[in-house]
Amino acid sequence: xxxxxxxxxxxxxxxxxxxxxxxxxxxxxxxxFIRNHPHPQYxxxxxxxxxxxxxxxxxxIVWGKNWDLIFPIDKLYAGVCCRTRKxxxxxx
Length: 92
Known about the structure:
The chain is of the alpha+beta class. 26% of the residues lie in helices and 30% in strands. The strands form two sheets. It has a three-stranded antiparallel sheet.
């Protein structure tokens, strides 16, 4: 089975709850990634109103008209949005 995100909802500042096609649910702190990887393209999503405008396209969560912010599905499934929790700024 190819893993995909079937729905997502905003649950807290810069956090989303992702529902995968195998019924797994993960909450992801995207804010940790943005704060630890400053970049003009990402920084604008620190604005809550802009952050909440994510959408599901082709089985993944994306932000922006041109997919300004997107993460590997396997990492999201593991509960992070980058290679390691440390790189995301997550200590545990």
